[in-house]
Automatic annotation (TrEMBL), chains A, B:
It holds the Pfam family HxlR. Keywords: DNA-binding, Transcription, Transcription regulation. This is DNA-binding HxlR family transcriptional regulator. One of its GO terms (molecular function) is DNA binding. It comes from the Bacteria. The keyword DNA-binding applies. PANTHER family: TRANSCRIPTIONAL REGULATOR, MARR FAMILY (PTHR33204), TRANSCRIPTIONAL REGULATORY PROTEIN (PTHR33204:SF18). Residues 13-111 form the HTH hxlR-type domain. Signal peptide: none annotated. The keyword Transcription applies. PROSITE patterns: HTH_HXLR.
Length: 181, 181
């Protein structure tokens, strides 16, 4: 994500630590796509229009950071690998929703689009920021949360379930803490 | 933030647009510091331990993007400039809070610290993600919101008020939209 080895990676501020993992545009877009069910290298590449080497580098760093895990799958005669969200990766849904709200209010797209909505799969109600359903009042877990992105399709897309495999988390090495966080 | 000119800057997805403005670690840290009242080049430099040229570049991009505005102030005999949050910049508080929550849960600091809290200045109650106060029940505006970062100080710090000056917003130029957002 950032080649600088001097960082806030291990500092006391959780915004600093989160930012050192997530503060990269492609990482945010790959997370968004993974949240919406994409798993394979070719899917990410096709959807994002990203160069192979950049995508490979970002995916590797995201696996190292514990946001994604590589899982084998059968592709004809070959065994290939796909990328599944970890619990930590899936828990970023509220961050992406906050970004979507802000982006809708404060940035202009090529076409004016209706906002992204987070909805309760069961009843179709919109979710508040704390995931309470505005229609039925239920406290909605991630497994019952879907996003509607009207510029893409009117159909709600369920959030991808995180992999059950234990997230392998490697902390960044050699990081030096600077600043007071 | 990102030197690639091919981007999602103008695409229909608000996460893509927000990510192209915010997807850079230093930008997130500068925003955090601005939110907590820092305004001057030397303050950001001292707090972040960032090189002059990198800080200058990030601040310039953040002004161009409409997150900060430059405002003159008197420094002895000299007129210098400080950086104030715009409305759009100040509206990023929920994004930073979501990052802080996630960072606290999923990343480890050098020392185990208590989480960052967003509180209601009037009564000291914690704020829910939708900014309702858990103590007095009030719907709390940004002007009554403070953050407590216990690793730094037990004292709540009020969020900086955005500048009243109209945010000058220049859209990124020369951006080509790729991907379907």
């Amino acid at each position: 994500m950032n080649d600088t080895k001097i960082g806030h990676d291990q500092g006391p501020c959780p915004i600093g630590r989160a930012g050192s993992l997530l503060g990269e545009r492609w990482v945010l877009l790959i997370l968004r796509d993974a949240m919406l069910g994409l798993r394979r290298f070719d899917e990410f590449r096709g959807h994002l229009g990203i160069a192979d080497n950049i995508l490979a580098g970002r995916l590797r760093r995201m696996v190292e950071a514990g946001l994604l895990v590589k899982t084998p799958y059968q592709d004809g005669n070959r065994i290939r690998e796909e990328y599944r969200l970890t619990e930590a990766g899936a828990d970023l849904a509220p961050v992406l929703r906050a970004l979507a709200d802000w982006g809708h209010r404060h940035t202009g797209g090529a076409e004016e689009a209706a906002p992204m909505r987070a909805v309760h799969v069961d009843c179709g109600g919109d979710l508040r920021p704390d995931n309470q359903c505005t229609r039925c009042g239920a406290k909605v877990g991630r497994e019952e949360e879907a996003w509607i992105r009207p510029w893409h399709s009117p159909a709600p897309v369920r959030l991808a379930a995180p992999t059950a495999a234990a997230a392998r988390r490697e902390s960044a090495t050699g990081a030096t803490v600077v600043g007071s966080g």
